[in-house]
UniProtKB/TrEMBL annotation:
Record keywords, A-Z: Transferase
Listed SMART domains: PKS_KS
InterPro entries from the UniProt entry: Beta-ketoacyl_synthase, Ketoacyl_synth_C, Ketoacyl_synth_N, PKS_Beta-ketoAc_synthase_dom, Thiolase-like
Gene3D superfamilies in the cross-refs: 3.40.47.10
Domain of life assignment: Bacteria
Protein name per Swiss-Prot or TrEMBL: 3-oxoacyl-(Acyl-carrier-protein) synthase
The keyword ATP-binding is assigned to this record: no
Gene Ontology biological-process annotations: fatty acid biosynthetic process
A GO term, aspect molecular function: 3-oxoacyl-[acyl-carrier-protein] synthase activity
Native source species: Owenweeksia hongkongensis (strain DSM 17368 / CIP 108786 / JCM 12287 / NRRL B-23963 / UST20020801)
SUPFAM superfamilies xref list: Thiolase-like
Family membership: Belongs to the thiolase-like superfamily. Beta-ketoacyl-ACP synthases family.
Amino acid sequence: MNIYLGASGAINPLGNSVSSIFDAMKSGQTGIAKFPNAFDLGKDEFLGIIDEKLLPKGEGSKIYRMLNSSIQQTLEGLTDTSILKSPRTRLIVCSTKGDIDELEKGNPSGANLSRLGEHIQRKLQMKNEPLIVSSACISGLLGIINGARMIQQNLADHVLVVGADLVTKFTLSGFISFYATATGVSKPYDADRDGINLGEAAASTILSKDPSIFKKVEAEYLGGASANDANHISGPSRTGEGLFRSVKNALVDASLSAKSVDYISAHGTATSFNDEMESIAFDRHKMNEIPLNSFKGYFGHTLGAAGLLESLIGIESLRNNTLLKSYGFEKQGTSKNINVLSANKGGSFNTMLKTASGFGGSNAAGIFRKV
């Protein structure tokens, strides 16, 4: 069964559409800025925070206005928006912490992730209850994989996948406690990398077995898989086992060999252990020569939105025949040689492997083809 992807939307510090974000990245811009004494935590931080001017006006907190912006773009990409009201259309919402600031406002129920799904369901008058996917930093990519499986198992004809997360005092303080945040703009895979930048974003797309619902089909989903390395709550397997298995099973699901992949949009957090683990996993698959990048230096790690947002930007790269440099990368900093892009690369690229890894040993891989 062919599964198509289209009607994508996104907002992050670089823009309020997938194309505008891609164009900003192609021109070498970063949306990460210095925030002195960020959130009164006593430390300067480099973060990717969305300017309120980019957001639509209206009621609701920031994350809801981010979601509204992205979803409006998705509506504009459909030939007939009434399909969203069909009982054969499902909704998947991906986030790690949702509107977590509601806790400090004395409204703990407002921080429940289900609230995000309920908001979208009501806004679009969707018939089915939403599925909430919250599996650390693989949530967005796992949402795509789960949506595709719903279609493959005849549980749905169309699936709207949405992801969103904020930079908040709660999340930032956690990464600071790990000594995991960078002293500048992050440098994934670089020898001088020293940590992560957090970022915020919302993204949305629709998966469907019917390409006619899209004004423009953006890609075909070929296959995907997830695996847990069962190593440590905050540290990945030193052999890359979880990511290795995710990629292996995604390739099987897509009926492809590793050499069929033209491009890898990798996770690349710029932390010591994560980037090293990824290099080992790709080396085990003999994918050392495949062009690879991480987008974290452009807008930070957007947590539950990351896998979805980065998939959409990677697909935009395929459609524009341009692979983007891995921002901040200059010198190989992993034990296994991988082909990290230090400059934009033009050419003909058709198939992308997208990977994600996160806390709790979670790993995921998805494969997409340009249409």
